[in-house]
Amino acid sequence: MSYTKRMSVPAANLSSMPNEDFDQEDPLYASGERGNGTSWTVLNGDSKVVSSMLAPGSINCVITSPPYYWQRDYEVDGQFGLEPTIDGYVTNLRETFAALRPALTDDGVVFLNLGDTYYNAKGRPHGKDEKHRSRRLPGLRAVDGPGLGLPRKSLIGIPWRVALALQEDGWTLRSAIIWVRKTAIPEPTSKDRPWRKYEHIFLFSKSPRYFFNREGLDGEEDVWFIEPDRKSLARGTHYAPYPRALVERCIAAGCPEGGTVLDPFVGGGTTMYVADEMGRSSVGIELNPDFCALISENMEKLW
Ligand SMILES: C[S@@+](CC[C@H](N)C(=O)[O-])C[C@H]1O[C@@H](n2cnc3c(N)ncnc32)[C@H](O)[C@@H]1O
Q1: 19 phi and psi angles, rounded to 5 deg
Q2: Taking 50 as the threshold, does the pLDDT of residue 262 lie above it?
Q3: Where are the chain's structural domains?
Q4: pTM for the whole thing?
Q5: Whose C-alpha lies nearest to ligand 1, atom 3?
Q6: Which atom of ligand 1 is found nearest the CA of 291?
Q7: Disulfide check for 61: which of 19, 250, 255, 287 has CB 3.0–4.6 Å away?
């Protein structure tokens, strides 16, 4: 990847007074401004740390899909999703959301997409997936070995564990949206249970009163039928992108015009591309610098 630009000027969304605990070098990777007054900012670093540097009240809406528990390797040290314990994973996510909370406006909302994981505990590594390098995890995953404290073959219940932890932390859980994919990947090796066809999108608010535009829901309520994108800037890569239509709906419902969207696990950049096209500013945090390079290139090409 050729993009190596790092900007030294502070972007609009960064607080000039970083959190005292901050011990990472300047996370600003690249940023730009549009003629319509919006801006985009790519920040490279650990979302738990970098989120705490965002200026208070600078974000209207968070839309994100963090790494799922033991599903992929994003090939970067410090990545979430490969924690040896379920609690470790839940703690990393709850700390990230606690860190970004001051940056969210009082009337701001969070859309959090999470999928679940089975505890197979077979004692041998997960089968190889030749098509997807990122789905090949080295050695024994925590969900392959003993010691997770659940009966073998359990659905772990990851999305709800995270949702309840955030609720405990003071987030108001407003909806547990079911995102249905008719063309979900089949699971032919699972002969004694239904195959998975849905994931969760939790809607949280910071306060009891918040910005929400029901017209943005396009006539659907808490079951969303959205198919994966055939054509996407992030498709064919190993970012595990979610569909643009999913982001469009979240923005239409949860971010005022001219507002700012944050994705603390921005991956291939879907959230930023859609926000940009919908006239919203965007901030993306990503640990893998190669992904930051790709997003920055695409953002510069878009206009
Ligand atoms: C599921 S992907 C996001 C895909 C994105 N929604 C898209 O449409 O392209 C999750 C991303 O989180 C990143 N990530 C993992 N741990 C992180 C951390 N601690 N801080 C920031 N990013 C992290 C991974 O590198 C990966 O790109």
Answers
A1: -55, 140
A2: yes
A3: 28-59+268-303, 64-95+157-246
A4: 0.91
A5: 267
A6: 27
A7: 255
